[in-house]
Predict the structure.
Amino acid sequence: EAGVTQSPTHLIKTRGQQATLRCSPISGHTSVYWYQQALGLGLQFLLWYDEGEERNRGNFPPRFSGRQFPNYSSELNVNALELEDSALYLCASSLYREHNEQFFGPGTRLTVL
Amino acid sequence: RKEVEQDPGPFNVPEGATVAFNCTYSNSASQSFFWYRQDCRKEPKLLMSVYSSGNEDGRFTAQLNRASQYISLLIRDSKLSDSATYLCVVNMGSSASKIIFGSGTRLSIRP
């Protein structure tokens, strides 16, 4: 069975641009979570989607947004990129609201120049 | 004070040694606890849940001390393949934002 997939693997942008990251959950999982992992820091919770709706949001500015599609895949958009947005962005999925059983994708490494 | 704190390490120990590290949490109402493992440039993977009575999985033992608000991970007979960063994860509530990841303890096993 395929795990969580994310694309692209790497993304290089310049300050002020917009970035779009994609995630496909494990088949049957309806909850998708996004995390930011900056160098040397722990995972910071960004967003939680379930059944197509944003259910919970971490302490990030509104320029971090996303959505979940009917097939439960998800997109994270980061507008007006800043240098400090450079990080590994991890997507995880779980069965409906099973936050304790999250399975992570390999991540997208975003570099903002 | 951080909600979840870990000693960043690195812990550098010889193969075969026993190594232990702790993780403290700030919210006494925290509900569930986990250890994840993250290899260099890879995604985190669930290593084990931590139960109130303590639990063991092969060479790994996890313990919870609610009174002192910490969890621990003990690795016996360490292998080179145990080299990784170990993340402490605490679920402090019912919503996804209440799952707090520690910044990890780096473990390096030397031959």
About this structure: Chain A touches chain B at residues 31, 33, 35, 40-45, 48, 55-58, 90, 99-107 (CB under 8 Å). The mean pLDDT of chain A is 94. Chain A is about 0% helix and 50% strand.
